[in-house]
From TrEMBL:
UniProt GO MF annotations: structural molecule activity
Domain PDZ: 71-154
Stored Pfam families: PDZ, PH_17, Syntrophin_4th
Domain of life: Eukaryota
Keyword line: Cytoplasm, Cytoskeleton, Membrane, Repeat
Main location: cytoplasm
Family annotation (SUPFAM superfamilies): PDZ domain-like (SSF50156), PH domain-like (SSF50729)
Start-end of Low complexity biased regions: 183-206
Membrane topology of this protein: Peripheral membrane protein
Protein name per the record: Gamma-1-syntrophin isoform X2
Amino acid sequence: MRINATKMSTPIEEKIDQKLKVRSGMVTVSDGKSKPIPMRLHLSMEVLKLQREDLEAANHNKPPLDAKERMVQITRQKVGGLGLSIKGGAEHKLPVLISRIYKGQAADNCGQLFVGDAIIKVNGEYITACNHDDAVNILRNAGDLVVLTVKHYRAAKPFLQKCEKEEKLDNAANGGMEDGWVSPSRRSGSPRCGHSRHSSNASSTSLSTHDKKWIDVITVPLMMAYVTRYIFGTDKLRRNAFELRGLNGARTGVIHCDDSAILSQWLKYITDNITGLTHLQMKLYNRNFEGGERIEYMGWVNEAVSNSNQPWQSYRPRFLALKGPDLLLFETPPCNIGDWSRCALTFKVYQTMFRVMKESENVDERQHCFLAQSPGKPPRYLSVETRQELLRVEAAWHTAVCSAVTHLKSKTFPVTYNGRIARLTLEWTQGFTLSLDGVGEIIWRYKFSQLRGSSDDGKSKLKLHFQEPDSIAIETKELECSQLQNLLFCMHAFLTAKVAAVDPTFLTSTTP
């Protein structure tokens, strides 16, 4: 996003705060309708903040326009002293002027002293008649808490800054360290030309992005937050923009980046933090659930919703979880253990078909889509934000299916075989077992590994093709089942679990 043809985004800066990475950078933000305004993004491990510059604080850090005397209290630091340099003195027929303020040191931190301030008093004692060296000694011996009476001379500032540049060039040419009275331990000689010199890479007192004061405008917690590039409820991608919505209802608005590279960086950093916090929450929840009820996945998806009043479908966010044998779709994420038992939409994973859609099968411009279909319920067409997230869902699905089947152990369906009422049982250890209803007499049994194929009429008839042991002969068994789709989905679940049991790498084969 450009405003007046000027780039508003800045590269993302990183720093370490209590051993954790904190990132920040300039972007523009809008409500999706009005003109975007510049703001700063500040990303920590747990929250994303939108910040604006504190103009009042910035004005406080500008030299005063009038020339009134001011009293400033400053606390000397152990390293760096008062954090300023002086020029002038009575021998030069000049006041004692602050010529440099060192970033991050005492004078800079107080925010009330400026290059061009003349020091009139130190702790109430006049120094206007002092020469340069005497002024240095008075400042050096003024104690830890120093009260300066100063008066700003605007005309002196350009001269002082010019001299500072010349000193830096002179010092660089001599390859030596500047000396001064700010930090006595660094002193290597007396000041020359009647003024002090310092070793420092400090910049001038004009405010950089680092120096600016920032006010938090919006704070969005990242725990189970929802981030999307799509215009809400549609299949339309925003150009180089995204939004974030927090569990507490806080929203960022639309965050605009100048180019796709910065957009990708911000999305990766934010998504990584959300994923990390979600995994942590999963671990905390799983302490309360037994092995067969473990949570394998939690995250936001978008569900397609058909609307009879409009020629297109819309999308709504859903919070998807895979817990034990269940696929759950929440309106809002579960915030406590009790919420897990209050989900309105629940599907058994061993009775649900999960299928990743090919790009050519997508119904609109939404990408990274999959289908969850369970007998007796309308299919759920869902999408996620990235290919990587889709692979995570798919891998978690296979893990959930394997866990559910191994805990379920067997599932029986009523069937008709050769005109007789029977039961077909899928057993984790035995495979397919057909027995007569009531008496329990076993008619035939085959291992899962013996199944070579199947076919059905989509209604009730099913053919199972088994290979006989130690033979290439194929035996076909014809059944009728009133719960045909349920049986087929359950067969698929058992076969998937068996493949994973034989080849554990199957569960990780879909990960990026």
